[in-house]
Every structure is written in structure tokens, then in C-alpha cells.
Design a protein that fits this description.
The chain is 51% helix and 8% strand. By secondary structure, the chain is mostly helical. It has a single domain, classed as Arc Repressor Mutant, subunit A (Orthogonal Bundle). A two-stranded antiparallel ribbon has the order 1-2. Strand 1 and strand 2 form a beta hairpin. The radius of gyration is 11 Å and the shape is globular. It starts with 5 loop residues before the first strand and ends with a helix. The mean pLDDT is 93.
Length: 65
């Protein structure tokens, strides 16, 4: 099992929050489109925006799993 850790400090979004936001996705193919879905669900990267690349990397990691 993957360790949970905070990725978006402004909104307190964790790895597991991102994973949960993606669990109902039919297709895990387009990381940018999935970023929009995750952002709507968690409000990540809406504060300072410093986590944007980490969120995309995490989405890509989940897609590849």
C-alpha cells in the first residue's frame, strides 16, 4: 500500500485524496484532463499553485499503477 502524504499544503490535499478523486474515472489516459477532475474534487492547486507539477506527477503515477 502506498504511504499517504500531503501534496497540496494550501488545501491539505493528500495522495489518498487524489487517488479517491480518480477512482470513478473510466479512463486514466489524459493526465491534464484528470488534473481538472482532481482540482474540482479537492481544490488542489488553487492557492499558491506551487503543487501543480506534483499533482500532475501523482496523477501520472496513479495512471501507471
Amino acid at each position: 500500500m502506498k504511504e499517504n502524504y500531503e501534496i497540496c499544503h494550501c488545501m491539505g490535499v493528500t495522495y489518498f485524496d487524489i487517488e479517491d478523486a480518480l477512482k470513478d474515472s473510466d479512463k486514466l489516459e489524459d493526465a491534464v484532463a484528470l488534473f481538472d477532475k482532481v482540482q474540482q474534487a479537492t481544490h488542489c492547486s488553487t492557492g499558491c499553485g506551487g503543487c501543480h507539477d506534483k499533482i500532475l506527477s501523482t496523477i501520472s503515477e496513479i495512471m501507471m499503477a
